[in-house]
Amino acid sequence: MARTTPHDPPPAEGEPLYSRIATELLGELRDGIVPPGERLPGERRLAGHFGVSRETVRQALELLRRDGLVATDRRGSHATLPGLPVETPASLTFPVGARTAAPGGVARATVTWEPPPADHAEALELAPGRPTLVHRYRYATADGQGLRTAVTSFSAVALAEVEELARYRDRADGTAAAQLRRAYDWMRRAGLTLHHRDAITPLASTPSVRVTRRVHDQYARPLEITDLVVDAQRDALVYEFTLPGRAVQTPADKRLSPVRRTAGTGHRR
Q: Are 180 and 162 in contact (CB under 8 A)?
């Protein structure tokens, strides 16, 4: 996204600049790039996106509010155009591979504040040795055979913008149980549109597979990375793909990033 400019460019003759920005933003909303009910980016990001001042963005949003096309509540401004409401894909669970405890099964999750694994730090654009919130998940069946473990590291962006995650820093001692099942909901409530990519690789000399999930937001900023290891002899990962996403736009295209609704999760057969 472009940085906010200190001065607005001259508007087209006879048309206020805020009116032109309102028209451009409305076009992007009608294209479904920000679905009805989902929070718009903040004024600063919109200003950088359109290359105008925040005051011009405020005026443009007010114009859309007067027409009932944008509403504002405690979560911020969001689109109110007719269309399908924003849904949370039930299959996009946190962490990837999390299981509903079966009779006799044991699930445990904890968080620590520590430097993440080196490959996680690189993916999250963290300096080597810089600590962050690290979530560990372990699930085992009653006989101890159906084991799956997951390690998740969160980025500085996720901790700065998602209040519920940031609260865990002071109690991330690795001992208390951590219930982050709603982590993706918290991210969406913070105005982040989630895009994810899952890669599945076999582990040499073992019957297990590793699933690596990388999640980023509508600005291509990394939010979290998870490594899940599953006993492939006992479990199978079933991925459900719905509502194929639009093509991801390049930085040269100044339109707001689209929502990708491709979701997957692991289930035991």
A: no
Rounded to 10 degrees, the C-alpha dihedral 209/212/213/214 comes to -170
The better pLDDT of the pair 133, 148 is held by: 133
Q: Please give the Cα distance from 183 to 40 (Å, whole number).
A: 19
Element (DSSP H or E) covering residue 189: helix 183-189
pLDDT of residue 133: 95
What is the predicted pLDDT for the residue at 172? Answer: 81
| DSSP-assigned letters across all residues of 97-150 | T--PPPTT-EEEEEEEEEPPPHHHHHHTTPPTT--EEEEEEEEE-TTS-S-EEE
Q: Quickly state the pLDDT bin for 182 (edges 50, 70, 90).
A: confident
- State the pLDDT at residue 216: 92
Higher-scoring residue by pLDDT: 153, 206: 153
Query: Cα 57 vs. chain centroid, distance in angstroms?
Result: 24
Instruction: Kindly report whether the peptide bond that precedes residue 117 is cis, defined as omega within 30 degrees of 0.
Output: no
Residue where the block lists tokens 């990388």: 214
Q: Give the CA distances from residue 133 to residues 152, 175, 211, 224, in Å, rounded to whole numbers and listed in that order.
A: 8, 14, 20, 10
CA–CA gap between residue 196 and residue 218 (Å, rounded): 11
Give the residue, 189 or 244, on which the prediction is more confident.
189
Q: In degrees rounded to 5, what are phi and psi of residue 25?
A: -65, -40
pLDDT bracket for residue 238 (50, 70, 90): low
One-letter amino acid for residue 269 of the chain: R
- DSSP character at residue 61: H
Distance CA 8, CA 159 (A): 32
- Would you tell me the crossing angle of helices 54-66 and 43-50 to the nearest 10 degrees? 100
